[in-house]
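#dry-run=false #mode=assembly
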Amino acid sequence: MAEIVLDSVTKQYPDGYEAVKDMDLKIEDGEFIILVGPSGCGKSTALRMIAGLEDITGGELKIGGEIVNDRAPKDRDIAMVFQNYALYPHMTVRENMGFALKLAKVDKGEIDRKVEEAARILDLEQHLDRKPANLSGGQRQRVAMGRAIVRDPKAFLMDEPLSNLDAKLRVQMRTEVSRIQSRLGTTTVYVTHDQTEAMTLGDRVAVMRAGVLQQVGSPSELYNRPRNLFVAGFIGSPAMNFLPGRIQGDSISLPIGEVPLGEAQRKGVQGASGDQLIAGLRPEDFEDASLVGDQRDRGVTFKAHIEVLESMGSEMYAYFTTEHEGVSSKELEELAQDAGTAEVPGAEQGQVTARLDAASKVREGEEAELWLDAAKLHLFEPDTGRSLLADEPVSDQDRG
Amino acid sequence: MTRTPREIAAWSIGLLVVLLYAMIPVMWILSLSLKPATELGDKRFIPKDFSLDNYDTIFSTSEFKHALVNSIGIAGIATLISIVLAAMAAYALSRLDFAGKTVILSGALAVAMFPPISIVGSLFNIWRDVGLYDTWPGLIIPYMTFTLPLAIYTLSAFFREIPWELEQAAQVDGATPWQAFRKVIVPLAAPGVFTAAILVFIFAWNDFIFANTLTSTDNARTVPATLAFFTGGSQFEQPIGAISAASIVVTIPIIIMVLFFQRRIVAGLTAGAVKG
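#status=ok
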């Protein structure tokens, strides 16, 4: 067990492409950290640099206080779980799990003991003498985990370990991974492109985009105080809605109407470079106006034509399109593209998703009166994508 | 898939034709080898009298026994060296990106395209000068050279099939590159190794040109060359029976070799390594 420190670590390929740019990250001893981002954001490259499978072009990598830049993977004492498991097909489960110990010339009895213990944790005891080919996907995944566990290494590195499992098994293994990690208390770096996995698993989540670390923080921090447009759009499902807005005094004019600014927003706006902003609205910050009750004053109500309504049983998702007055959304779109909204799923301008209570009487194809919680508005600068609120301390409770 | 009786019949006839076409010459030689000298020309497919005289004849002289030892030794050693070198070369070619990779590959192909007959003359002179003429190494070296390209191509195709993650997993597990190669890659490439080994062995075993040109005595003369020097019991007698018997004997190691290795050439050895 050890802490892992990346000090402006950079990866540049011979063709000049920079996969990871100046990455600074300190991973505490025993911490479970998630590297998340869209494909090609450099998260896997970063992991492979920690593993030693990829050379580090610049910067320093420390594991347990020692600089390991030039050490071979075998001398770093780390274990890795690969996306496709990479089990040795000619070895039984027992041999697969004991391979590392055998290479380390550990005593035979000791190997057996450790392998059996790991098998017990992973519920693989009755499969120890089978070959990987005869195992199911979930079992193979557990063998890959077992291979890492038996080593008792300084750190676990996991490269999308659950992405090859079907949805149900993935949720099950997610809990499993979390349970094993907290039981062993081993520093773990986990790479995924799935923000749900990131939010549910990690102590801290590091969001990456185009080789640059965007924000590192606890899941609730990322969710409630995204530092920029990209993080705001990437974290959360369904994704945050983005609308163009123009500051007018103490309120902001959005396509859905005039929205008064809360205290935090007012303070944030002072730091803005222009009066044109991008407003971010989480789907759950909307509600059916008839169900809001005494909170009504905190927000604004507006009418929307519901195009599609999806009922999930416990909640409903209403989709509607907004019309823009005065503000060219095209222009905002282009500006925002550099800031990363282009890579955000479902962030087409004008499309809004609202989460409504299941008790709502809103109907598809009809006009509905919706309510927006103005206090939860996120504001971003269109040219940089920077959040105007990120520095404001907002308690988790307040943000709900 | 179910087949109709008609299809089965058609397939059976087809297979029988192919089998007869391929096997009749071999059967004919077998038949010749079992005939006594006086009945060689009787034009019968099944010999009237079976006799093992011909086999006695070839094994009674030291000539054939030496040739057999030479053949086994030379082909075996050439195969071993060729496969070891080819495995290492193929591994490097399939995994590493280095300058001159394509040059090496096309160079290997160029070597394979050279007709042996075109170099055997100069080789004869060189070998006599450097003292390799009529020695085992004198044959092992050209066999190795001519089989390496084929072995490298076969093996690199197999190595490419092995997921790279397996080596990386081995490296992370604490293996040196050599250990990863020996304990993970080679076992998985075993079908390829055996395929290449069979091809190399057959080439070395069956070669006549080098064996005939670069040897002069029992020292290194292999069976195919020795057959050409068989003489009959008298100058009026054709050594056909002895040659046939020797041909049969010389085929046996190849059959054993193929049967033995075929069991190792099992498909799907990498199944289960990675999620498809």
